């Protein structure tokens, strides 16, 4: 074996090594969060490629998010392996469908891909005499997504929904009717949805031997991360790709199944060793990601879980040095909670933690806005995960094509906004027009957002302070869409139409790990597989987590797993918080039932790590902070000293405090971390 392949084995524990070096054939890693599953599969690919066993270009590594795919590619590049296809199911299917479309469609145009089902579902519901508001239409769309991901046709829906104990948004027969109407409208309009796209990829392989041959020649070695959240449609596609071959490595954690509402099931993972009797099965329990304190809370949250996967679970064993206890806080209302979180982020950044190592995670995307605002006010840069979607919208794509062609024909010196408006007018959009209804309205809104963006871009002379730029773009109504992170970057660059167009293009196609140094705002769902030094789990009120929509016992269990996913994202610091009312004086709320008791004092630190049914140890509730830097101190020696291990004890407090102050000021002035180095002198 090549020495570079040997190097790939360094830094792995014996079980991980076994997974990495297992011979070609089915391999299954069943293990908890942070135990190095993703690391193991990444190293397995690298090891096999570097030792010459396989060619990197024949590997298809399926990940759950584009960001995870980008991270895997980055890790592989660092190990000296390029050319691996790391993609989501969707991206891999889309690529395949696009590639074969000219052949399979015989010249017919490739159908437009629907970004969201909601609009067509509303039409379909109206056709069956159901009046729906947006929320009701979304519920129906979710149900249709479940059915299609579960390979259930409209005619089979009623039986399948009953069998799966679905909590249906309407009488099952009505849902089936809407489902059928939706399919019909979709076909009549020549559009397809995401599930259709996966189905098209399956159909291409199953019905066309030449396509199958070509696809299978390309993809020979398969790796699937987060396999606990695969749905029947995705499994069918995986089987189509495999075509009976067995060079497949799957990894997952049944305790992190958080997509069963869309038809995902941990069954494929859990049953894998039974289905593939020759599989090498590996279990990992050492947690390399988080401090033992965070691991303790994670174990406590998931220990209470009910369900089939409960028997398979192993307690995580923390490997990292001890850190701070998870911090639980209660605030009187959401704006206060958001402001406190933003202030804490600012402190962390000032003390040297890069903003990209911080995440604020929430249950629903609607919660994002309060944090965007608070972070902007605190002048902390941030990026909203999943916001790239804006650029996938049809109308935005069209607008961008128009912009790019405008770049070629616009005389130099034309003001940016004017040029953008002219370009958009060329595709039939006029901003003075009142927003029309239905489909046209969405198009109008997306274009309006683009123009607004251009206006902000044009108006901002060179560099705004981070906060102002963020507020400006947030006011433009596009934050959470177009302004993913880097608001400074947007305005920093010289303003010209050409550059604006290029920037849009870059953002539309970008699929790399964000290089922007901003705090990540993300939903718990989209945080899966990722990790940060500091994590804030916010809005942990009962009714938000678990959501009021979780009615059945299974749905409530899924919410518990969602919390487990959240807790296990933190490497070093974990803050959990909730507001006892949404707005000042609002209806009182209770804390998330999966958590330790929060005490009732506003903004005060609450009971640490006492979880359901376990009595808190009163001695551990008294919080002691370092006299110098303010870090929370652990029980034991450093509590007695009154200062943390990072603050040496042989100089007087006043001098240290001044040094820390100075460091914070340098850090915030330069917007880079600053370090104070203590030497003997
Ligand atoms: P999740 O279930 O959240 O996806 P995971 O099991 O995929 O977690 P990884 O992301 O692979 O875990 O690893 C978690 C962290 O631990 C990473 O920072 C990784 O680099 C580190 N790590 C994994 N294995 C080791 C090891 N043997 N030695 C040191 N660090 C490790
Ligand atoms: Mg992982």
From TrEMBL:
Enzyme Commission number: 5.6.2.4
Keyword ATP-binding belongs to the record: yes
Any GO BP: recombinational repair
Record domain UvrD-like helicase ATP-binding: where: 10-291
Protein name per UniProt: DNA 3'-5' helicase
Family, similarity comment: Belongs to the helicase family. UvrD subfamily.
Region annotation Disordered: where it falls in the sequence: 597-617
An example molecular function term from Gene Ontology annotations: 3'-5' DNA helicase activity
Sequence ranges assigned to domain UvrD-like helicase C-terminal in this UniProt record: 292-529
Residues binding ATP, per UniProt: 31-38
Organism of provenance: Micromonospora pisi
């Amino acid at each position: 074996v090549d020495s570079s392949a040997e190097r790939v084995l360094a830094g792995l524990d014996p079980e991980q090594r076994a997974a990495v070096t297992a011979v070609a054939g089915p391999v299954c890693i069943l293990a908890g969060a942070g135990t190095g599953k993703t690391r193991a599969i990444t190293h397995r690919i690298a090891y096999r490629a570097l030792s010459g066993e396989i060619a990197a270009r024949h590997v298809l590594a399926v990940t759950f998010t584009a960001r995870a795919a980008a991270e895997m590619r980055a890790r592989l590049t660092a190990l000296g392996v390029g050319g691996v296809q790391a993609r989501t199911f969707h991206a891999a299917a889309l690529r395949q469908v696009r590639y074969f479309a000219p052949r399979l469609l015989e010249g017919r145009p490739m159908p437009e891909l629907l970004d969201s089902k909601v609009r067509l579902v509303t039409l379909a519901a109206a056709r069956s005499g159901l009046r729906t508001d947006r929320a009701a239409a979304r519920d129906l769309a979710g149900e249709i997504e479940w059915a299609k991901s579960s390979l259930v046709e409209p005619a089979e829906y009623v039986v399948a929904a009953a069998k799966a104990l679905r909590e249906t948004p309407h009488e099952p027969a009505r849902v089936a009717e809407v489902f059928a109407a939706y399919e019909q409208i979709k076909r009549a309009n020549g559009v397809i949805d995401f599930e259709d796209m996966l189905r098209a990829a399956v159909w291409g392989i199953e019905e066309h031997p030449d396509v199958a041959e070509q696809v299978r020649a390309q993809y020979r070695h398969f790796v699937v991360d987060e396999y606990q959240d695969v749905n029947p449609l995705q499994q069918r596609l995986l089987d189509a790709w495999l075509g009976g071959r067995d060079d497949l490595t799957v990894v997952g954690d049944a305790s992190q199944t958080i997509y069963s509402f869309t038809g995902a099931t941990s069954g494929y993972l859990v049953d894998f060793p039974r289905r593939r009797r020759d599989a090498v099965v590996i279990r990992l329990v050492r947690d390399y990601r988080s401090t033992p304190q965070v691991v303790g809370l994670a174990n406590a949250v998931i220990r209470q879980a009910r369900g089939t996967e409960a028997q398979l679970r192993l307690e995580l064993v923390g490997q990292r040095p001890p850190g701070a206890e998870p911090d639980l806080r209660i605030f009187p209302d959401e704006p206060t909670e958001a402001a406190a979180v933003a202030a804490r982020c600012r402190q962390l950044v000032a003390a040297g933690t890069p903003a990209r190592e911080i995440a604020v995670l929430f249950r629903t995307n609607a919660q994002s806005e309060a944090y965007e605002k608070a972070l902007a006010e605190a002048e902390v840069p941030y990026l909203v995960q999943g916001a790239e979607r804006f650029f996938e919208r049809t109308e935005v794509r069209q607008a961008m094509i128009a912009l790019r062609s405008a770049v070629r024909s616009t005389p130099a010196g034309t003001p940016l906004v004017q040029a953008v408006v002219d370009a958009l007018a060329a595709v039939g959009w006029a901003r003075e027009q009142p927003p029309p209804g239905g489909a046209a309205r969405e198009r109008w809104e997306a274009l309006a957002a683009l123009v607004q963006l251009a206006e902000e871009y044009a108006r901002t002379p060179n560099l705004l302070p981070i906060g102002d730029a963020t507020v400006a773009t947030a006011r433009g109504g596009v934050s959470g869409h177009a302004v993913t992170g880097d608001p400074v970057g947007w305005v920093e660059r010289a303003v010209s139409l050409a550059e604006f167009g290029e920037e849009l293009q870059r953002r539309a196609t970008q699929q790399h790990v964000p290089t922007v140094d901003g705090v990540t705002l993300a939903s718990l769902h989209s945080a899966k597989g990722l990790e940060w030094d500091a994590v804030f789990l916010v809005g942990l009120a009962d009714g938000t987590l678990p959501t009021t929509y979780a009615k059945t016992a299974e749905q409530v269990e899924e919410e518990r797993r969602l919390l487990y996913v959240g807790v296990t994202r933190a490497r070093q610091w974990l803050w959990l918080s909730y507001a006892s009312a949404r707005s000042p004086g609002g209806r009182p709320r209770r804390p998330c039932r999966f958590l330790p008791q929060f005490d009732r004092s506003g903004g005060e630190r609450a009971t640490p790590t006492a979880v359901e049914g376990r009595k808190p140890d009163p001695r551990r509730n008294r919080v002691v902070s370092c006299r110098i830097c303010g870090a929370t101190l652990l029980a034991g020696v450093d509590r007695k000293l009154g200062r943390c291990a990072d603050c040496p004890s042989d100089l007087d407090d006043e001098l240290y405090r001044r040094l820390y102050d100075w460091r914070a000021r340098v850090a915030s002035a330069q917007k880079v971390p600053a370090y104070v180095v203590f030497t003997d002198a």
